[in-house]
């Protein structure tokens, strides 16, 4: 049986993804956070005030789990909720000044870890990887 390049690409993608995720998880743990805490905080840090649904779509965590994480981050004073004046069913989540200060301190360090992971890959290669992975994702979403 000949080697299937699709199968090989899949295996390499999965192994690479696992390795990168483990490295990122290790980095985030240095800040006394879980990955879900950091991802939600990071999404609001960069995108500003969001609804729970918007956060859920951005970070790929289901809304039930997100509510629990938001509760924890709110208790720590890093996030706060505010009601939507037009629709009482909608609740906005925004970063507090304390949360912003924390992310101002740790996000550059986190970004440096990501930059180091990709440091041996040229800008052109990164663009190619992004394009290919987007195409794979769109194919699966059909």
Automatic annotation (TrEMBL):
Keywords noted in UniProt: DNA-binding, Transcription, Transcription regulation
InterPro entries: HTH_MarR-typ, MarR/SlyA-like, Tscrpt_reg_MarR-type_CS, WH-like_DNA-bd_sf, WH_DNA-bd_sf
Keyword DNA-binding among UniProt keywords: yes
SMART domains: HTH_MARR
Domain HTH marR-type: 6-138
Any GO MF annotation of the entry: DNA binding
Cross-referenced Pfam families: MarR (PF01047)
Chain coiled-coil ranges: none
One Gene Ontology term from the biological process aspect of the record: response to stress
UniProt-recorded name of the protein: MarR family transcriptional regulator
Originating organism: Virgibacillus profundi
Origin organism lineage: Bacteria, Bacillati, Bacillota, Bacilli, Bacillales
